[in-house]
Design a protein that fits this description.
It is found in: Membrane. Keywords: Membrane, Transmembrane, Transmembrane helix. This protein is mainly α. Helices cover about 85% and strands about 0% of the residues. It has one domain (about 1-285): Up-down Bundle (Na+/H+ antiporter like fold), CATH 1.20.1530.20. The protein has helices at about 1-25, 30-35, 40-65, 65-80, 85-90, 95-125, 130, 135-160, 160-190, 190-225, 230-240, 245-255, 260-285. Helix 4 (about 65-80) crosses helix 12 (about 245-255). It is globular.
């Protein structure tokens, strides 16, 4: 009963608050701004929604990982970028406006893409019968509920109660971070024995995936002739995932706590890789002409 309350009530509510805090930091101008730089948006979408799931699948295949853990990593790869990517982008001296805009757009696109990836992963790694049982419509509805609605409410609150929102947003972000740590702790505690038995294989995979996507996201953006700041931003946006959503999908929608382990583990380890990347890019980027695209 306690597990049902955590999975069915607490996790979705915590994720909803995290997304509400993200909405407090957004304005309609963030969505309009990204339309003014469509190349950065298209490169970001390609890296996050195509390259990330593809690389994750290839790594799983190469290392021979299957079953529920493989599905868990694919769920993670199908999630939108995490709101903490904005903080890492700031630390890296990246394009924070692009980070905010892409995070918002990614949260909307995920409503449609995540169910497709999850259904495919279940069929590929666990068999067609499991894929047939996936409530795709319910999943889309729940993703929209825990992503779109709270973000919209946060944006409405910022517009309607601007002074309060500007004061509360920094505190809300801190509370959201604490709540995220809480749900990771709950997920790990609930599956401690399973995590201990598989830590040796799951942790290195999570670190390798994180570092690979940080590097590839930056490299693809740079090859697409985006500016240094934009390339740094898309490297972070490609690798920093909304692990809280992965936990909700695994535990609440699919009702398989083992699938939540990869998301919980990645959700912790990605901060180490992301912080190292951000500080390295910040140091390397000093003195560069960061606002213009690099020369031919």
């Amino acid at each position: 009963m306690q597990g049902d309350i955590v999975s069915g009530v607490l996790l979705p509510l915590i994720l909803a608050f995290i997304m509400f805090s993200l909405g407090l930091g957004l304005t309609p101008a963030d969505f309009r701004r990204i339309l003014a730089q469509p190349r950065a948006l298209l490169v970001g979408v390609a890296c996050h929604f195509v390259l990330l799931p593809l690389v994750c699948y290839l790594m799983l295949t190469l290392l021979g990982m299957g079953g529920v853990f493989a599905v868990g990593f694919m769920i993670l790869a199908a999630c939108p970028t995490g709101s903490t990517s904005n903080l890492l982008t700031y630390l890296a001296r990246g394009d924070v406006a692009l980070a905010l805009s892409f995070t918002a757009v990614a949260s909307v696109l995920t409503i449609f893409t995540l169910p497709l990836v999850v259904t495919w992963a279940l069929g590929h790694f666990l068999g067609a019968a499991r894929a047939v049982d996936v409530p795709v419509g319910l999943m889309m509805g729940q993703v929209a509920l825990v992503l779109g609605v709270p973000v919209s409410l946060g944006m409405w609150a910022r517009r309607r109660f601007t002074a309060w929102a500007l004061r509360f947003e920094p505190r809300a972000t801190k509370v959201a971070t604490v709540l995220f740590v809480l749900i990771v702790v709950l997920a790990v505690a609930k599956n401690w024995a399973l995590l201990v038995d598989n830590f040796g294989s799951l942790a290195p995979f999570a670190v390798a995936l994180n570092l690979s996507m940080l590097t590839l996201g930056f490299a693809v953006a740079w090859a697409a002739r985006l500016s240094y700041r934009q390339s740094v931003t898309l490297g972070i946006e490609t690798a920093v995932q909304n692990a809280a959503l992965a936990l909700v999908i695994a535990s609440t929608v699919l009702k398989d706590d083992a699938m939540a382990i990869p998301g919980a583990l990645y959700g912790v380890l990605m901060y180490a890789g992301g912080l190292v990347f951000a500080l390295a890019m910040r140091r390397f980027g000093r003195g560069r002409a960061t606002d213009a695209a690099h020369a031919a």
